[in-house]
Amino acid sequence: MDAIIAALERAAEGAFLIDRNQRIIYWNQAAQEMLGYAPAEVLGRSCYDVIQGRDDHDHAWCRGNCSVTARAKTGQPVETFNTLAKAKSGELHWINVSILALETAGQEDSLAVLHLFRDAGELKRREQFAQQVLQLVETMHQPPVRPADASGAFWPEPLTEREMEVLQLVAQGF
């Protein structure tokens, strides 16, 4: 475990370890830089109280007995996920989190769950922009509500299937 901690100290990604009870037992410098909390402010606290992770619909992602911890405890893989984390300043930051379950050698029934995280703000902004473009494209594909404006000019024809494909590719960043 000491070798892992030494490696995490040099990591550019934020990292924290929690015990079986979801208490933070390690917090690295990169985590402090990203979220503003010093190790002394978070050690011993519940990870869900510190991170306060939310999803796109403002539902709590981080909570007591969350699915991430439950899966890690049973040895099941946990897929990387994005969550909106609350920094010490109160600012909200999108982070992308990877999980690793680590068994502590020599200690029976002991498990530490490593959370590695990185900024996901730009990724989420691109994703939201793509969604807005796709919504716009869908509304453009709808037949016009009125056939002509006040001057008598007709609305343009709906987009062709190929034009829709091109707009969708543009919305995806191509």
Number of helices: 7
Mean pLDDT: 86
**Quaternary organisation of the protein chains:** single chain
**Structural class by helix and strand composition:** alpha+beta
Q: What Rg, in angstroms, do the CA atoms define?
A: 23 Å
Cα end-to-end separation = 44 Å
Order of adjacent strands in the largest pleated sheet: 2-1-5-4-3
Low-confidence stretches: none
Main sheet specs? 5 strands, antiparallel
Q: What is the helix fraction of residues, given as a range?
A: 25-40%
Order of helices and strands: HEEHHHHEEEHH
Please provide the count of β strands: 5
Which of globular, elongated, flat, extended, rod-shaped describes the shape?
Answer: elongated
What percent strand?
Answer: 15-25%
Molecular structure report:
The chain has 174 residues and is an alpha+beta fold. It is built from seven helices and five strands; from the N terminus they run αββααααβββαα. A five-stranded antiparallel β-sheet has the order 2-1-5-4-3. Strand 4 (92-103) and strand 5 form a beta hairpin. The model has no long low-confidence stretch (mean pLDDT 86).
